[in-house]
Design goal:
InterPro entries: Peptidoglycan-bd-like, PGBD-like_sf, PGBDSf. The protein has five helices and no strands. Helices cover 37% and strands 0% of the residues. Among the domains are: 36 residues; 71 residues, PGBD-like superfamily/PGBD (Muramoyl-pentapeptide Carboxypeptidase, domain 1, Orthogonal Bundle), CATH 1.10.101. It is mainly alpha-helical and 219 residues long.
Length: 219
């Protein structure tokens, strides 16, 4: 069992409250200091400034000379404000620029050389004209006749078409491949199923079909 507390113990005493100590602020001295600063009478002692004319030039001392480098000139030329690091950077930039210019010139000369090699030579006045043998062959075969041609071969075509009924009825045999003859050739190709030549062009396929139907003794 717990024993009751004895009379007069700490538990019967009232708790202590914190004590607040108030000190008056001495604002009079601070206000007086501000007042003196505003009036300019802050107790500053005057300092006498010596006359510049009374200065003794003998008290000045000359600076020692700057040490020279390998070339006899001071390192880091102060005339231009360049130090050793800046000079090395300038030399590096100059070398890189020269290398780029040389590389670009080499590429330009190489490109001009290749262009001159690829360019075909121009024909001179004494050069002979090119022959027609190098021209591309006619896709409809050799001896093909088309609109605008003329000659005995066209006349033979007109006479053969006149033998085919209703293909070139009343057509001319003057030897000129005109629009009327072209329409007759196209009509012959359509009626007889000839598809090897261009429409209205008298090529190898159309020639073989027409000559086989207009041979001697056929009508």
């Amino acid at each position: 069992m717990s024993t009751p507390p004895a009379s007069g113990s700490q538990q019967d005493r009232p708790p202590l409250e914190p004590i607040r100590v108030l000190r008056p602020r001495r604002t009079d001295a601070l206000a007086e200091l501000f007042r003196e600063m505003e009036l300019g009478t802050g107790g500053l002692e005057p300092v006498a400034v010596p006359d510049p004319r009374s200065w003794d030039e003998g008290e000045t001392q000359e600076l020692p000379p700057v040490r020279t480098g390998h070339g006899g000139s001071p390192r880091g030329d102060s005339r231009f404000g360049f130090g050793p690091g800046l000079r090395r950077a300038a030399v590096t930039i100059a070398v890189a620029a020269a290398a780029l210019v040389g590389f670009g010139g080499a590429l330009l000369l190489h490109g001009r050389h290749d262009a001159a090699a690829v360019e075909a030579p121009r024909p001179t006045a004494s050069a002979e004209p090119t022959t027609t043998a190098s021209a591309a062959p006619d896709p409809d075969g050799a001896g093909t006749l088309r609109e605008g041609d003329s000659g005995p071969a066209v006349t033979d075509l007109q006479e053969r078409l006149l033998r085919i009924p209703d293909v070139y009825a009343g057509g001319s045999t003057g030897g000129t491949y005109d629009a009327t003859l072209k329409a007759a050739v196209a009509r012959f190709q359509l009626w007889y199923g000839i598809r090897g030549d261009e429409t209205g062009v008298y090529g190898n396929d159309t020639r073989n079909a027409l000559e086989s139907r207009t041979a001697s003794g056929t009508g």
